[in-house]
# Entry
Amino acid sequence: MKLKTIANNYAFIDSQNLNLSIREQGWALDFARFRVYLKEKYGITKALIFIGYVPQNQDLYNNLRKDSYILILNRRSH
# Structure
């Protein structure tokens, strides 16, 4: 059964916790499929992903945007 889309149903995703949890299971996350899952299963209209900014990861950021994630980039502190 498909859920009815609810206006303003947002997901706030901590990429570090998500990534570590998935890796602990020995899996690799397909972000595009995960975004579809969030939309179809939970009616998520916007998925905001909090992720550390690393200049070398620009391709990852572009792909996440292409997959309809809203990126909240945080500069890494040393």
